[in-house]
Structures are given as C-alpha cells and as structure tokens.
Write a structure and sequence with these properties.
alpha+beta; Beta-lactamase; eight-stranded antiparallel β-sheet; 29% helix
C-alpha cells in the first residue's frame, strides 16, 4: 500500500465522525459520501434519511437526482462516438442537427461540438422557459423552436457561459448520430459499458422507491417541505440523471488514466485538459477543472430542486470523492473540501502524531464526542496518536489539535491553544469516559 492510500485509510474514522456530526448539526435530511482511490472503494456511507417521513435511512446505493452531473454522461457519450469515428469534436452542430440553424443569427451555425462541451459557445443558459420555477421542462419541439429563434448570446470563444441549453442540444445530437433516442443511446454508449447498475438518464415510476426524496430549505419555525420528482424531458442530457455514490465512484475510476477501460487514455486526456478558461472558470470537455487544497480537481457539481451534489477526482493520486445530498440548503462543496482537507492533514501531519502502537485499543475506546459547557468536541485516534477537533466547524482542520499520548489515559496538547498542557481522561460513575475539567459525560449526538 502506498503512503497516500495509507493516509486516506487512517483518515476515515475522522471523516466519518465529522460527516455524521455535520449532518446532525445542520439538520440536513441526508448525506451520502464515497471515497475511492483508483478502482478501490475505501469508504461509502449514508447519513440521515432518504425519506424523513418514513424514516428510510440513506445508503451508498440510494438514488439522488444528480442534475448537472448529467453533462458528464453526455460528454462521455460524445467521446465514445468520437472514438468510433462517427463525429469529430470540431464538427458544426448544424452538420448533425439541421434545426439548430437560425436566420436571426447566422453565426449560430458556426458553433461546434467542442464549444458546446466546454461552455465556450456563447449559448444562453436555460432558454426562455421557466422550468426552474414551475418544474415544466421543455419538450423537443420547444427546444427546436428556441434554437430557430436564436440561442446565441456571445460570439464563441469570447466568454465562458455555462449552458444547460448547450448540453440539451448535445443530447439530441447523440440521438441524431446514433438513430436512437438519447436515453437509449447514452445507456448503450456509457451506462451499460461502465456497468452502472443504478444510474439512469430519466427516472421511472418503478425507480422512485429507490430515490431519496428531495426537500426544500429549512425555514424558521417550519418543517422541511418535500418536493416532487419532475422529469427534465428534452433537457435530460443536461440535468435529468439519477445516480448514487457507488456508481459515481466507478464512473470516475473508469475516467482515470491507466484504468485500461472505457475510453483510450488519449481521449481521456482530451476531455481532462483545459479547453477554455475565463475568470475563475476552467473547463475541459464536460469536466470542470480546478484546484482543491492545492490539488488538481476534475469533476462537476449538480443542483436540482431538493438535491445538491459535488464530486470529482485528483488525478495525481486518483483520489475520488462523491458527496450527494437531498436538500436545497446543503453545501456539498464545503463537505467535499472538508473531507479533502482531513485527508491531506493526515497525509502531511500524521507522522507527527505520537502515541504508542500498544495503546491502539485504548485510544479507540477513548475516541468519540465529548460535551462540556462550551459545546461538543471530538477525539479520534489517527495511527498511533490522536487529534481533537470541533465537529460543528465547517472547516474541520482549522480546529485540529494534535494530541500526544503520554500514557495513563493522558494526552499532551501539541499545537493548540493549550500547547504543552496535559489532558487526562477518566471513567465516571456510569462507566463513561470524561475529560477531566471539561464535564463528566461522553456524548453521542442523536442522529
């Protein structure tokens, strides 16, 4: 096992405790999270409830509406057709979809597949329908009408302009090239070859029982409002997909170089290299590119009524993180970055944690949540040593204190506000561990 993988494995208990408390503390319905390196899944777990009324717990196979992650599946279908010689990335859209041309804006006919894939085409974001307000997504006739009337806002390759319309058009281009409807084509080109058994471009009535329910944001004095699942119709290629942690971990693994599967490495590099950048946004072909905690990031986010998500991988370590939620007020990017920061803390600082290998069982017993008059703290063994932190904090590593174990249930603060001072744990009359001077109860939050 390489050092980085060992660091990830050593960080999993920390991550688990932080995520569990974050779900409880922020009163989110559910979070489902997965972590993998290469083709190996190291962690996948659901927290909270996929259905709050029925108290159905979330799991790694719970289906969430993954919204704009749909674009990654559409881009993958395009690249399969590219490898098969059925299209070129710089083909004009009108070469495959005659209805994309418009008399009102002749330059629209010059838009290419590559430009739509990289959000550099200048197309508008969502067209002229109010689907994000009334849940009435356009059908194909409406999409064609809008394209005939003109969907270009800027010249191509001038501004980065995120566009659901662009990927909706690309979905129908896939259909035109294959002679099949988009849903069938993307199944044959991407979902089936990847063996994604729980992924679908559009939900069915029979699959609803496997889906989490999406919830509105929590308003003061109210309970969460459940939201109906709605079909994205002609925009499935941009935002209609449902998937789960297990499948998305596999999806990213098969997009990593040297996996030897799905696409050629040359094709993967083309998808993952910078195609267009404007301001803070850097885009490949379908993939968002960037940095997280000084590491490269290749991935995407998603937002659908009642569902927010973030996923991606670090190509240097082939580390994949997937975060799926079922509420409109969650912050999956913060959860993603929190998980990543814990991993890199352990990788960079884990060797400084001091204790004794012979005391692992005791350190594991001491690990957990502690309540005092100031709030909740968490102690967790990491390797031979331990850390304490504030699990309610959105940036967990900012609160990390390295604890050097010196024996007899006693730790020395190695870097926190009480640096050099000792903390002793002891059992109270009820047989629970307590921290001397910080209350007398071992606390397990009610999730």
């Amino acid at each position: 096992m390489d050092d980085f993988t060992a660091s990830v494995e050593s960080s999993l208990e920390l991550i688990d405790k932080w995520l569990a408390f974050q779900r409880y503390y922020t009163q989110l319905p559910s979070i489902s999270v997965g972590i993998g390196i290469g083709g190996k899944t190291l962690f996948e777990k659901g927290y909270g409830f996929a259905d709050m009324e029925k108290r159905i717990t979330a799991t790694p196979s719970t289906l969430y509406r993954v919204a704009s992650h749909s674009k990654l599946f559409t881009a993958s279908a395009i690249m399969r057709l590219y490898e098969q010689g059925k299209l070129r990335l710089d083909d004009l859209i009108v070469d495959h979809l005659g209805w994309f041309a418009t008399d009102g804006n002749p330059d629209q006919a010059e838009m290419t597949i590559r430009q739509l894939l990289s959000h550099s085409s200048g197309m508008n974001r969502d067209g002229d329908t109010d689907h994000w307000l009334n849940d009435e997504f356009p059908d194909l006739d409406s999409l064609k009408r809008q394209c005939r009337e003109g969907v270009r806002m800027f010249d191509a390759n001038v501004n980065w302009k995120y566009s659901n319309m662009a990927f909706s058009v690309l979905g129908h281009l896939v259909a035109a090239v294959t002679g099949k409807d988009y849903e069938t084509a993307v199944g044959e080109l991407v979902i089936d070859p990847m063996a994604l058994n729980h992924t679908m471009p559009d939900f069915t009535e029979t699959s609803l029982s496997d889906h989490a329910i999406g919830y509105h944001m929590l308003l003061p004095g109210e309970t969460r409002e459940p939201l109906d699942h709605v079909h994205a119709r002609a925009m499935n290629a941009a935002t209609g997909f449902s998937s789960c942690v297990t499948d998305l971990l596999r999806f990213y693994h098969l997009h990593q170089l040297d996996s030897g599967q799905f696409l050629k490495d040359t094709t993967k590099r083309e998808m993952q290299r910078q195609q267009f950048a404007k301001g803070p946004s850097i885009w490949g072909l379908g993939f968002e590119l960037g940095d997280r905690a000084d590491r490269k990031f290749i991935g995407h986010s998603g937002a659908y009524p009642g569902f927010l998500s973030r996923s991606g991988f670090d190509p240097g370590n082939n580390l994949t993180i997937v975060v799926l939620t079922n509420s409109s007020d969650s912050m999956p990017s913060l959860l993603y970055e929190g998980v990543l920061s814990i991993i890199h803390f352990v990788h960079k600082q884990g060797h400084k944690l001091k204790g004794g290998a012979q005391d692992h069982a005791l350190l594991d017993e001491l690990s957990g949540y502690y309540r005092d008059r100031w709030g909740i703290s968490c102690m967790q063994r990491v390797g031979d040593g331990a850390v304490s932190f504030a699990p309610a904090h959105a940036y967990p590593t900012e609160t990390f204190t390295r604890l050097d174990y010196v024996g007899e249930q006693t730790f020395r603060d190695a870097n926190g506000g009480n640096i050099g001072e000792k903390t002793q744990l002891r059992k109270n009359a009820n047989g629970n561990w307590s921290i001397k001077g910080y209350g007398d109860a071992f606390f397990i939050p009610p999730w």
